[in-house]
Fold these 2 entries.
Entry 1:
Amino acid sequence: MDETIRLSSVGKVHGSPPNEVIALRDVTLAFPPASLTAVMGPSGSGKSTLLQCAAGLDRPTTGTVTIGDVDLAGLGETALTRLRRDRIGFVFQAFNLLPSLTAEQNVGLPLRLAGRRPGRAEIQDALAEVGLADRAHHRPGEMSGGQQQRVAIARALVTRPAVIFADEPTGALDTTTSRNVLTMLRGLVEHRGQTIVMVTHDPLAASYADAVVFLADGAVADTLAAPTPDVVAARMTRLETSC
Ligand SMILES: Nc1ncnc2c1ncn2[C@@H]1O[C@H](COP(=O)(O)OP(=O)(O)OP(=O)(O)O)[C@@H](O)[C@H]1O
């Protein structure tokens, strides 16, 4: 089953006249299965809006978003909520784990929200995928930042989503820990065919991606395959100085 995520001529206007802000302009992109895509761009260039529209958290003003052959615009609120819950995983800069729950309970949360009693094996599998099989009974406060982010990634994986959207997943981590988390994300793409779309400001993080999409003023300014940190940094500098 082809589960490519496609944005076709997506535009997004926030607010209403006279305070309209055009956040996305005619964005056409595809995120193919088993790929890691980095989304970069200056502050206010539309990265978060792009993620929100691609994830069905916000509806585009114009254009379409499809996951495989499902057009998100054709879904009512209930169906869209179900699609987000079952087919999309989210990872955030601040981990967003519940502090009073163990790693195992945090990872099981999306299944509980879907009305299912989580199976021990599926939670253990998700924790093993992020190298934390032995931490199932620890609470977030008993783990390092990198370990907490790995629990959050296990939580995103547990529903076997078509795509994981990650908003600055290494933004709160030091360089060494970031590298570990990025290597792990890369491994999920290579070994289990996971599709991941990651917003980042960090050229090093972007260099782990298969492709980088650069946004400027709401439009795709450039794309780069096989990125290296130096080339990414140079393109970012060029974009930041031209806006
Ligand atoms: N709810 C909103 N209402 C009005 N304007 C908004 C809203 N959300 C975003 N914007 C505007 O849309 C534009 C794009 O914002 P967005 O948050 O997508 O950018 P970004 O690239 O993620 O920025 P940053 O890197 O600073 O987080 C900005 O001009 C922003 O001020």
Entry 2:
Amino acid sequence: MIVVEDLHKSFGNVEILKGISTVFDKGKTNLIIGQSGSGKTVFLKSLLGLHTPDQGKIIYDGKVYSELNDDEKRNLRQEMGMVFQGSALFDSMNVEENVMFPLKMFTHKEYDEMKERVDFVLKRVNLKNAHTKYPAELSGGMQKRVAIARAIVNNPKYLFCDEPNSGLDPKTAILIDNLIQEITKEYDITTVINTHDMNSVMEIGEKIIFLKDGHKEWEGTNNEIFKTNNEAVTNFVYSSDLFKKVRQMYIEERN
Ligand SMILES: Nc1ncnc2c1ncn2[C@@H]1O[C@H](COP(=O)(O)OP(=O)(O)OP(=O)(O)O)[C@@H](O)[C@H]1O
């Protein structure tokens, strides 16, 4: 579980995060949504420890980040997995080497043990016979699977995903969303996903926080987002007429 208390972050004189408080539960897919420039990436980077907040606290299962010493911070970072936008695989490494990379960096495991773990996670993301392939030889969906395998290879307690569906067709995007949700539940991970994808919001939005201009404007579940009367949220989520009609039909059906 990650608890965020009154998080503020400025760059120069410009305040980007203006006092965000929320809770991200374990075993759940938590989504951050909001318009471009609303502060989602700055927020996600703050959760990763890449930005130091000016004010407020981030608490990881009882550990207040700002109160940890350097070793404790390093240990905590090793409990975090990250799926970057565009997968960010190493082009010069094959799939097995990409996935093994965090184990080589952060553990002292023998090769056989690392290989066993790599085989396990690649199987878990349904990638078989891809060990010796290079990223350029893989489809976008397969690259995402490799990125997810790499993010979970070190058994993270926290998984952060930045636009995991960018560049994928809608069907593959749903498969990737479902895979992230399954893994989150299976290994009881606290997962936080930064997304623009409204399909993701509807499919896996167990908890959604909507940022607007650096504030938390709204939070709730995918069921609640259908019913909310918050204008900023409805304008954002139902920006197309088609979505507005679907929402109207849903509300009428429920009444
Ligand atoms: N390192 C930085 N230095 C100065 N300003 C920054 C820095 N990082 C982000 N910003 C500013 O913070 C604001 C929020 O940016 P952020 O990248 O968090 O938006 P976002 O909601 O993730 O947008 P998008 O959906 O387009 O990725 C922007 O105005 C951006 O210019």
